[in-house]
Amino acid sequence: MNLDLNGRVALVTGALRGVGAKIAARLAEHGAVVHAADIDDKAALRMDVTDRAAVAAAVAKIEKESGGLDILVNNAGLLANGPFDATAGEAWDRLVAVNLTGLYNCVQACVPAMRRRGRGAIINIASVSHEKGGGAFGNVWYGTTKAGVVAMTKGLGRELGPLAIRVNAIAPAVVATDMVRNLLTPEVRERIVARIPLGRLAEEDDVARLAVFLASDWSDFITGETIAVDGGFLRT
Ligand SMILES: NC(=O)c1ccc[n+]([C@@H]2O[C@H](COP(=O)([O-])OP(=O)(O)OC[C@H]3O[C@@H](n4cnc5c(N)ncnc54)[C@H](O)[C@@H]3O)[C@@H](O)[C@H]2O)c1
Predict the structure, then answer these.
(1) What are the pocket residues of ligand 1 if the criterion is a CB atom closer than 6 Å to any ligand atom?
(2) Strand locations in the chain (E)
(3) Alpha carbon distances (Å) from 77 to 16, 39, 66
(4) Which of helix, strand or coil describes residue 171?
(5) Which of 28, 36, 60, 150 is the most interior residue, by most CB within 10 Å?
(6) Residue-wise pLDDT tens digits, 2-57
(7) Global pTM?
(8) pLDDT at 81
(9) Which domains are assigned to the chain?
(10) Distance CA 136, CA 65 (A)
């Protein structure tokens, strides 16, 4: 029992850049065969999580090529920012499609493969914004979708436990990725950091290292949990 992921096959969504890319790299470094999927054309595995048929086809292909599937990291996500009336109807539809329906699609496609394998670990990337329904970055609509991710994690943890499939979530504070970069002026960064007891923003690797732990057998009695990676932000 250790952090060794040799013999494990993983699917990471939204893995071309940012947090997802780091998670994919860390899982591979620990021995997993990693399928890094992204909606972007530059991705080795192009997959839009909102396209149910495409997700099912991609998962079937992974299972055939790699002999099974053990780890799913639901990382692909979109941000909505600003006051409640700044998010247009179409933007809300897309937010729900990526941040919630995308997880539904991936879970539904991957669980049968994990059942055949007799084990599985699902890791959902939520956000500290689940706690208060938005906050520093991410508005009420974004926070609402992430609260849905946390509820999904709890319920699936309960339902899939008897199948030896564990489901956990990671709730990061602000990470300086493309998602938020244009919002992170020096003043905004300073204001956010001042609210974080450990005195810095989150980094991609803070999330990736926890993802490796949650994917590995070292966390084999942990399920249904959402773990904040926030330098103490939610405790202030
Ligand atoms: N950056 C932050 O401050 C922060 C904080 C908390 C949580 N998160 C969460 O972490 C996750 C990763 O965020 P990030 O900061 O790395 O974002 P990012 O925008 O840098 O990267 C997201 C990736 O997801 C891909 N993607 C978007 N829609 C997709 C779709 N429909 N199908 C497949 N791929 C798709 C994008 O092409 C991109 O490569 C998200 O779920 C986000 O909500 C981010």
Answers:
(1) 13-14, 16-20, 38-40, 48-50, 75-78, 98, 102, 125, 127, 137, 172, 174-175, 177-180
(2) 9-12, 33-38, 45-46, 71-74, 120-125, 165-172, 226-229
(3) 12, 11, 26
(4) strand
(5) 36
(6) 799 999 999 999 999 999 999 999 999 999 999 999 999 999 999 999 999 999 99
(7) 0.98
(8) 95
(9) 9-231 (3.40.50.720)
(10) 42
